[in-house]
């Protein structure tokens, strides 16, 4: 397995801490992991004896399962911690929770929390590597890595590609990590959505082009990514209603025609079918939405392998 850079012991809070070369190392490693996942027998002993905790203070299905499956396929011992039914409900703080888990011999923490910055706190209290599985509106770096890997795999590179990200930009932690990573890898990123769902100065902060017209955003795009319309935000009065949002910003077959002929359609999930993306687009030949899920396991396997210092391929293949 080609591993030109040593990432052993690193944390992953967001992609601003990783270089282009390090991201490419993760991609190359994920390619190998994806091949392993195609085998009849998918488990390899590379992380045997290591213990990984999924420390989730916020509800999640696909992210938690993806991480746990990744760790198990590398033969790590996996402990799944959720705040529901735990000592946290009895008033225990994050510090004591981590101290308790650390005393049990944990090697790496995967953290999801509604408050930005909690992954860094877990590292402070544990002294162990931490992977950010989503912290508030701040970041979701492994989702961004799997999104970028999915594009890299199909296009060979992100450099020079026009990538349009459409939807609820304001509340998305996915888009923030993607903007950092995609711009770092040389893509031209356009964000599009209602003015009320657009963060102020996003163009200045992240170097993305900000537009409010869907046709302009999608014209000649190489990649179009729809973001989940967070239905719980409808009560905040940020847009009149779902039907108006769909009419103006929903991805339909008609809208997609202005993109390039080999455009990739993406969605980080979960989807609201018929809201931000119509079934005719989500299920089209251009869609790689299901493949994103597959790639999520490979990317997370790659990160665990690299950060926990897995054995070389000749010993595990």
Task: Characterise the protein shown here.
The protein has 317 residues and is of the alpha/beta class. The protein folds into two domains: 15-139 and 296-316, Rossmann fold, CATH 3.40.50.1370; 141-293, 3-Layer(aba) Sandwich (Rossmann fold), CATH 3.40.50.1370. 39% of the residues lie in helices and 14% in strands. The protein has helices at 20-37, 62-73, 94-102, 118-126, 141-155, 173-184, 202-206, 214-218, 242-249, 253-256, 279-282, 289-307, 313-316; strands at 51-56, 77-82, 108-113, 130-135, 162-166, 188-192, 209-211, 223-226, 264-266. The strands form two sheets. Strands 7-6-5-8-9 form a five-stranded parallel sheet. The chain has a four-stranded parallel sheet with strand order 2-1-3-4, with helices on both faces. Helix 2 (62-73) crosses helix 12, helix 3 crosses helix 4 (118-126) and helix 5 (141-155) packs across helix 12 (289-307). The termini are close together.
By DSSP (H or I, 4+ residues per run), the number of helices equals 13
Output the strand order for the largest sheet. 7-6-5-8-9
Give the topology string: H per helix, E per strand: HEHEHEHEHEHEHEHEHHEHHH
How many domains make up the 3D coordinates?
Answer: 2
CATH topology-level name of the largest domain? Rossmann fold
Could you tell me the number of beta strands? 9
Distance between the termini: 9 Å
Quickly give the structural class: alpha/beta
Mean pLDDT, rounded to whole units? 92
> What integer value in Å does the Rg equal?
20 Å
For CATH, the homologous superfamily of the largest domain is named as: Aspartate/ornithine carbamoyltransferase
């Amino acid at each position: 397995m080609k591993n030109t850079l040593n990432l052993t012991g690193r944390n992953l809070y967001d992609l601003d801490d990783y270089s282009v070369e390090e991201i490419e190392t993760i991609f190359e490693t994920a390619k190998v992991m994806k091949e392993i996942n195609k085998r009849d027998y998918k488990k390899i002993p590379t992380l045997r004896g290591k213990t990984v905790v999924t420390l989730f203070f916020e509800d999640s299905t696909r992210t938690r399962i993806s991480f746990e499956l990744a760790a198990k396929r590398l033969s790590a011992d996996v402990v799944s911690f959720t705040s529901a039914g735990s000592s946290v409900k009895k008033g225990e703080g994050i510090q004591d929770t981590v101290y308790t888990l650390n005393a049990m011999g944990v090697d790496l923490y995967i953290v999801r929390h509604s408050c930005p910055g909690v992954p860094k706190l877990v590292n402070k209290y544990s002294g162990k590597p931490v992977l950010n599985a989503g912290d508030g509106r701040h970041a979701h770096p492994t989702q961004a890595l799997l999104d970028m890997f999915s594009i890299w795999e199909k296009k060979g590179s992100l450099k020079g590609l026009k990538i349009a990200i459409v939807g609820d930009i304001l509340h998305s932690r996915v888009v923030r990590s993607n903007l950092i990573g995609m711009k770092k890898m040389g893509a031209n990123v356009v964000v599009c959505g209602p003015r009320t769902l657009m963060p102020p100065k996003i163009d200045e902060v992240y170097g993305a082009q900000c537009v409010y017209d869907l046709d302009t955003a999608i014209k000649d795009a190489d990649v179009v990514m729809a973001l989940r319309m967070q239905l719980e935000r409808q009560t905040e009065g940020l847009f009149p209603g779902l039907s108006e949002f769909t009419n103006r910003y929903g991805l339909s077959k008609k809208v997609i025609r202005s993109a390039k002929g080999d455009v990739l359609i993406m969605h980080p999930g979960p989807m609201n079918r018929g809201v931000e993306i119509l079934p005719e687009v989500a299920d089209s030949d251009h869609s790689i939405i299901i493949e994103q899920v597959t790639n999520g396991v490979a990317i997370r396997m790659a990160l665990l392998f690299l950060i926990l210092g897995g054995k070389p391929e000749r010993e595990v293949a």
